[in-house]
Amino acid sequence: MAGHAAGRRGGRPLGSAATVPAVLVCLAAPAFFVARMPWAGVALLAAGLVAAALVERSARRGAGVAASGPSLVRDLSLIAVGLVIVSAIDLKAELDDLAMLRFTLALGGAVVVPYTVSRWAYRDRAIGFPWRGGHRWRPWQWAWLGGVLVLGWLILPFYFITSGVYQNWPVVDTPDLIARLFVGVGAVGIWDELFFICTVFVLLRRHFADAAAGVLQAIVFVSFLWELGYQAWGPVLTIPFALLQALIFVRTRSLGYVVTVHLLFDAVVFAVLVHAHNPGLLGWLFLVPAP
Question: 114 phi and psi, to 5 degrees?
């Protein structure tokens, strides 16, 4: 535990005794969303929280450990609550009224409940949503927005169509369904940043260096996207995306910017799905023909 204390005094550590409970909690995500084994997810969350309590207890007994630092148990419990709420629903992409209501309540609850507990029960304001970041967008930020569109245009049609994962989304062949897909893709994209970055990543980086916190949140982010439909070789795309979004948030401190990046990427996702389900409609836009 002395190593953990030294790491804390010298800045947020890349790894420490707290790594084990944090990894256990984050591994609950693939148990819930990839393996589809809720019992394993709950067991991992319980083990992670117990381990966190033991780490904190040991730290309190160690010499020179500050008692006023953020609580690992509390922060991991907020992540655990969010994961349990999301895991309560089937994440299969559907566009009927009931499915959209189900997504709204579960995903909304996964953000609102941890935020509420943090602010009014724990009274530590660990979770926040800094929209502007305190400065205007820099030239590299504007350039990256264009880069996101170009990369999405080049990569996403090839991924969705050649792997066949576009079939994980419902057929959208009417104006109503296309409009519902547009709303659904955008809403989930915004939620991704509210939960994975402004909740999971922010809570983890209270205890770990940014690189370690980014990797841990990527485990959760990519697992959710897997069940949502980004399967086959999708993690080759979603892992770098999750890590980049965390890095960009650290650099900009702007929820507004990471949401903009995500929505631009999702705009291409939306267009590709419409293209894949409607051969001939957007064939002029993409290099990969619809199946």
Answer: -60, -40
For residue 231, which phi and psi values (nearest 5 degrees)? -105, -155
State the Cα–Cα distance between residues 235 and 226, nearest whole angstrom. 8
Listed in sequence order, the residues at least 6 apart from 198 whose beta carbon sits closer than 8 Å to its beta carbon are 127, 128, 129, 249, 255
CB under 8 Å, gap of 24 or more: what pairs does 199-204 form? 199/78, 199/79, 199/82, 199/110, 199/111, 199/114, 199/115, 199/127, 200/79, 200/82, 201/246, 201/249, 202/126, 202/127, 202/128, 203/75, 203/76, 203/78, 203/79, 203/126, 203/127, 204/22, 204/75, 204/79
Write down how long the chain is.
291
Owner of token pair 């591994």: 27
146 near 261, Cβ under 8 Å?
no
User: Tokens 């693939």 belong to which residue?
Assistant: 30
Span 232-269, pLDDT tens digits? 999 999 999 999 999 999 999 999 999 999 999 999 99
Q: Which residue is associated with the tokens 């809720």?
A: 38
Whole-angstrom Cα distance, residue 161 to residue 71?
Answer: 45
CA dihedral sign of residues 22, 131, 106, 170: negative
pTM of the model: 0.92
Burial grade of 198 (CB within 10 A; 0-12, 13-18, 19 or more): buried
What's the half-sphere exposure (Cβ side, CA atoms, 13 Å) at 223?
A: 24
Give pLDDT tens digits for 131-179. Answer: 988 788 999 999 999 999 999 999 999 999 999 999 999 999 999 999 9
- Rounded to an integer, what distance in angstroms lies between the CA atom of residue 24 and that of residue 52? 10
Cβ atoms 134, 253 nearer than 8 A = yes
Q: What's the CA gap between 231 and 228, in Å, rounded?
A: 8
